Amino acid sequence: MSNSAVDTKTNVKILEDLAEPSMFRLIYLNDNQTTMDFVIESLVEFFDYSPLTAEKITANIHEDGSAVVAVLPYEMAEQKGIEVTVSARANGFPLQVKLEPDQN
Description:
This protein is an alpha+beta fold. It has a single domain, classed as CATH 3.30.1390.10. 41% of the residues lie in helices and 20% in strands. The chain has helices at 36-47, 51-64, 74-90, and strands at residues 23-29, 66-73, 96-101. The protein has a 3-stranded antiparallel beta sheet. α1 crosses α2 (51-64) and α1 (36-47) packs across α3. The mean pLDDT is 92.
């Protein structure tokens, strides 16, 4: 048996220029079939809005045709959008959600 030692050198480069994640606006689109009650419930359930705030946002969606309901990092916005869409379809509603890069 030989008694040899192996020296291993590891180079580690530290990245100091980490950027904040890109933020995306999650937007609900108005349609003529999804009930306002469902929209309010989804805003309370998935975004933790109070019922009163959810009602105001729902009124904006209805009046303006769409409204930004949250601004989140892309992965979170995408996940919330999927959760809302799955819930809408499970309840028979065609509610559409879209994501746009936040310009702020």
